[in-house]
Amino acid sequence: MTSDTETVDVAVVAKHRAMWATGDYPRLAAELVAPLGPVLVEALGIGPGDRVLDVAAGTGNAAIPAARTGASVVASDLTPELLQAGEAVAAEHGVTLEWREADAHALPFGADEFDVVMSCIGVMFAPFHQRAADELVRVCKPGGRIGLLSWTPEGHIGELFATMKPYMAPPPAGAQPPPLWGREDHVRALFGDRATDVATERRTLTVDHFADGAEFREYFKATYGPTIAAYRNIADDGDRVATLDAEIARIGDDFLRGGHAMEWEYLLLTARKA
């Protein structure tokens, strides 16, 4: 299948690496999204004897639970700072796995190398979707399992990205929005006939960390690379900053309406390599 681009521009890679190194994503991963990793590990039936690759692993929210099952796990990510944070967490809990710096568009692994290839709210942020999907398939063994957990366009994080988009720097040519990975038809098209036994389910993550939308906004402004990037892009325009402040707070308040917890929707997808 033809990739979006034969060579991903080094400047694009550097920009994404720097973005995810800003703020405090390890804090967000631990406090908000830690429950998602075990969901993906369970859905894939990972266990002893499996050789597993976690693509765009971040701090290892899925890789560490996978290693706990007795599987042999490689956690790969573009951003060294996230790998270092994950390695420290794994060491603290006595979990052993391999940590590798890698671009999801050009994985440094051989074809048909892994029994399981997975990504938990990770590969969805690689800007060139087809190139990243091609790599997921390439490194998976025939008959091996592929598993993805991605925010949906309609869910809370999908709405956050749609809100931030007008305030962010223009994406590189050929890039696609991250929440598209949360659409079943999009991912099916990326894999084509190379994936069989595709199963999907929309679920939600309950997040009860915020009292109101303003608290949600301030948390993401302090910890989340894409939000920090959006604000940096408009830092010299006070009116736009104020407008974005109001819009992000409104999203938070909308998802808190009627209770003290948010429900963040995601798509869980599993498949086998044909």
TrEMBL record:
UniProt record, GO biological process: methylation
Pfam family, one: Methyltransf_25
CDD domains associated with the record: AdoMet_MTases (cd02440)
GO MF entries: methyltransferase activity
Superkingdom as given in the UniProt entry: Bacteria
Domain Methyltransferase, residue spans: 52-144
Keyword Cell membrane among UniProt keywords: no
Keywords: Methyltransferase, Transferase
Gene3D superfamilies in alphabetical order: Vaccinia Virus protein VP39
Protein name (record): SAM-dependent methyltransferase
Source species of the chain: Mycolicibacterium agri (Mycobacterium agri)
